[in-house]
């Protein structure tokens, strides 16, 4: 076969076919454009899918019990109601009876003393530890971890340990004091009407110190070191540095710690029940323990709900304060 025949039998492929590998021409397909409205709708859908389970959980396990408790506070709700499903409407009778009770006034006064004493002790000691651990030294990390132990131990376990330590006859504390000759007989830390509330406050301070120390230590870490260096150049003392640098910079964190501490302390129940049960002679009775005893000791759930609703209102007040304090730095 001649060269001419060979060229004649060759198939010439068009340039377009060669670019696509031969055959039918393939055109690129662009994905459809999503409008701004569609993107916004998709973002809302994704946010809803993420928030949905949390919202459902909050409604079922927090919202529903709170609403039921509010309703129960206006009913004559007793243990027989669980069987008859009949709770007569009481209106404001439960609140009137509770507020007029001498025990409520005692519980309210004890709640104020318990809360103020606990918050002051926890904050002062927690701030001292936070300032101490700001310096790095050997085993500082291990010691910071040990400080968290009171916060990690279950409250009922902590109260049992403290009850053993503070027992009048066989408590370890009284034995140490008598062995050292400081006292002649055991001190009734938990059975004396004069000492019981003070003792419970001390135990609650011990439990709350880690929370204050950790949060305040984190706040101290955010203060620029350059401020202290500039102050040292100007000849400021340690007290002046704390007063003019540390405290103003730490004030937003302090506000949050104090408000959260108040909300937490108002509802403390385990420690008081484990140590004294509200006694002796109602010396450690608080609003939380009164609500518990009305509901589960005398089975007057209506009055117990009324006391707890009052406690919820007080907690909500401090929760609003916390939200405002937490939002202020962002707005400013």
From TrEMBL:
Transmembrane stretches, start-end: 45-67, 112-133, 145-166, 186-207, 253-275, 305-325
Principal place of residence: membrane
Record's keyword terms, sorted: Cell membrane, Membrane, Sugar transport, Transmembrane, Transmembrane helix, Transport
SUPFAM superfamilies to which the protein is assigned, alphabetical: MetI-like (SSF161098)
Stated name of the protein: Multiple sugar transport system permease protein
InterPro entries hit by this protein: MetI-like (IPR000515), MetI-like_sf (IPR035906)
Membrane topology category: Multi-pass membrane protein
